[in-house]
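User: I'll paste a sequence; please echo it back and then give the predicted structure.

Assistant: Echoing your sequence first, then the prediction.
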Amino acid sequence: MILRWHGHACFELQSDVTLVIDPHDGRSIGLAPPIARADLVLVSHDHFDHNQVRNVRGLRSRVIDTAGQHQFQGRSIRGIQAFHDDEQGAKRGEIVMFKFEMQGVSFLHAADLGHYPTEQMDLMRGCDLLFLPVGGVFTVDAAMAWRIAQAIAPRVVVPMHYRYGSLTLAIDDVQPFLDSSPWPVVDLGTEMELEQDDLPMQPEVWRFLG
């Protein structure tokens, strides 16, 4: 399958179906818009930098934006309810983290997680690849992200939702997360071919470069 980063928290997985997570519109956050036509769009919460479904929607796309167990073309997608802040959603509301499998690789997209997910941790564990926000301000920061990553223990953690390039959001860049990494950091482009055999035996950080 192809794993492609469209910037910010937006990722595309392309195999026999195309799945896009948290599409932004580009313009409103200083980035190029994602160019994709999704069969399935996962939306973690209704904020402008995560919910621009019209940018990636195909003629028969399905959108999933709720917690709970979902099915799509024989695949199981689990939405895990959490919070955008550390005050039970009082400041920024709820989010949905999505856990799913494609071609033998299990993924967890932690969306704009804003707290240590004590109650959600059992559901979050058991993923191969963890997309994790690290930029702070609106989400967990680098230090909290590492607490979470080490508790989940994926084979790969992919940092997201951080300041880089032309992004206009006032959040931290990725460097504090990388500097405190106990795991090797592998730099990638904006996309890669990914199969189960490509997963490392020991944990790594994969940084996509826009």
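The first helix runs from residue 121 to 124. The chain is about 10% helix and 35% strand.
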